[in-house]
Design brief:
By secondary structure, the protein is mainly beta. The protein has one domain: Capsule assembly protein Wzi (Porin, Beta Barrel). The chain is 10% helix and 49% strand. It has 5 helices and 22 strands. The protein has an 18-stranded antiparallel barrel. Strands 10-11 form a two-stranded antiparallel ribbon. Strands 16-17 form a two-stranded antiparallel sheet. The chain starts with a helix and ends with a strand.
């Protein structure tokens, strides 16, 4: 009976997936004649590992890569994108991405399938309205080679919800276009959540609230541009069950969350974010980008005086891809240093601790912390304890058992003989958490070397191969080889 129930309980999920894909393809086919902005992408890959999937195999992959080690993975997507040459004030876009995988059994689940991207969006002038779930990254960072933005890195699966945003920098004409801004406001549902501290053991729904504001100083044509911004994320929900004595309904709780107000000397929900600063210099051939992300945690938005914790990065990118690729060319390079060891606000004069220590990516309210579907919403450098070595201490009420670290990360892309290469190398020193520190410092090296080559007789198709390895004491020692084929182009 249990087997039959499990089997037939899959049908509602499968029917929902088929329904949404059918609706999307119907819209695409019915309006394609008006526009040529319908695209597709598909890939199939096969991975073999000596143990658990190495860090860079599954990190910053939007939660699609199994951690089980050896697997086969299919990724099939169709998108309608905005037409940059279309003068209409209103445009629409949509996307659907189906992920299917099968591998070694892990957590009693050998195979899985789900929709990762599934959204419909409309743009009126510079303002976009989006419903559904779409991959996104938040923060000033090099999105290709970075270890991951601290706030939202593209490490976890996209959260379903509603979003209004100005996704591209909008010049402000009253500043003679010297200042431009972009902003976002999002509310999404994370699903059922287990409670670590409160009157209830679990609540049926918890939510993610996110907003951001970023400014650019300098016109798009200027060589020098300066960026500054702030983002705010909060996980909340179930306050009426967690703290019934406060008699806080959902609408009132939401007001406390978006304004960051205190209730009985505590924040409603768990809050996290960064304040960012970046400087960009563009030459004819290369663009240089220097950036800094500074962390603030629950209750410390206007009290942050800890300048130690955060992400520092420097990247160099070639502005134009070279047509002649017979010679070896470096196309981009990145170096980052990330620190989360201190987690304390200190007086700048006496260096005395004046506020409590933090616990980044963990929550004293919700056991899942700052994560979704088991993966960190923020940087993957703060791992879920389900991926760390089994010999390390575990926290039954937290998401991560390793949120205090110093990390040195580098990346590089290059091309040679019509083949494109990518390298990532990460070295970290990990100290555990303040609640459960490691007995000794756990050192870790994680590597990735990838190559992709387009094949002439396969139009719009390419083969790729990657080597990954984890060496150290934070993750299980493991090596993996992944091979695959991908293809993309216009629909019809």
């Amino acid at each position: 009976m249990k087997v039959l129930f499990t089997k037939y309980s899959l049908y509602p999920k499968l029917m929902r997936i088929h329904f949404f894909v059918a609706i999307f393809l119907f819209l695409a086919s019915s309006i394609y004649a008006q526009d040529s902005t319908f695209q597709y992408s598909a890939s199939v890959s096969l991975a073999g590992s000596t143990g658990q999937s190495p860090f860079w195999l599954y990190s910053n992959q939007n939660g699609i890569v199994p951690v089980s080690g050896s697997f086969i993975l299919g990724d099939f997507a169709a998108y309608k994108v905005y037409n940059p040459n279309n003068p209409r004030i209103f445009q629409w876009s949509a996307g659907a991405e189906l992920i299917a995988s099968y591998g070694k059994e892990r957590n009693d689940k050998a195979g899985d399938y789900f929709l990762n991207d599934l959204y419909v969006a409309g743009r009126i002038g510079p303002v976009e309205f989006l419903a559904g779930q779409k991959k996104s990254i938040m923060g000033l960072v090099d999105t290709l080679l970075s270890s991951g933005s601290l706030a939202m890195s593209g490490n976890a699966r996209p959260v379903p919800g509603f979003k209004i945003s100005i996704p591209e920098f909008l010049p402000l004409h009253f500043t003679n276009d010297l200042v431009a801004l972009k902003a976002s406001y999002f509310d999404g549902r994370l699903g059922q959540g287990d409670v670590a501290y409160g009157s209830a053991r679990s609540v049926p729904n918890i939510y993610l609230h996110q907003k951001s504001l970023y400014l650019r100083f300098g016109k798009n044509s200027h060589r020098l541009k300066v960026y500054a911004g702030i983002n705010h994320q909060a996980i909340w929900g179930g306050e009426d069950k967690i703290s019934p004595i406060q008699n806080l309904n959902r609408i009132d709780a939401y007001g406390y969350v978006i304004l960051g107000r205190n209730l009985d000397a505590r924040k409603v929900g768990s809050h996290f974010g960064t304040t960012d600063l970046g400087i960009e210099w563009r030459e004819n051939d290369w663009t240089y980008f220097l950036y800094r992300q500074n962390i603030y945690d629950t209750g410390s938005l206007f009290k942050v005086i800890n300048l130690t914790d955060g992400l520092n990065g420097f990247s160099i990118k070639r502005n134009k891809r070279q047509k002649k690729t017979e010679s070896f060319l470096i196309n981009s390079f990145l170096f980052e240093v990330a620190g989360t060891q201190k987690q304390t606000n200190n007086s700048p004069l006496s260096d005395l601790t004046i506020f409590r220590t933090g616990d980044y990516y963990n929550s004293y309210i919700y056991k899942q912390g700052y994560s979704y579907k088991g993966s960190s919403i923020g940087t993957p450098l703060i791992p879920g304890q389900n991926t760390t070595d089994q010999e390390l201490p575990r926290n039954k009420t937290g998401f991560t058992n390793s949120n205090r670290s110093w990390v040195f990360h580098s990346g590089l892309t290059a091309s040679w003989l019509n083949t494109y290469f990518l390298f990532r190398g990460t070295y970290s020193r990990n100290f555990g958490t303040f609640v459960q520190p490691f007995e000794t410092v756990k050192q870790q090296i994680s590597l990735q070397v990838s190559a992709e080559k387009k094949v002439k007789f396969l139009k719009n198709g390419s083969f790729f191969a990657s080597f990954y390895s984890d060496i150290g004491s934070l993750y299980p020692v493991s090596t993996s080889l992944l091979i695959g084929y991908r293809r993309s182009g216009l629909i019809w």
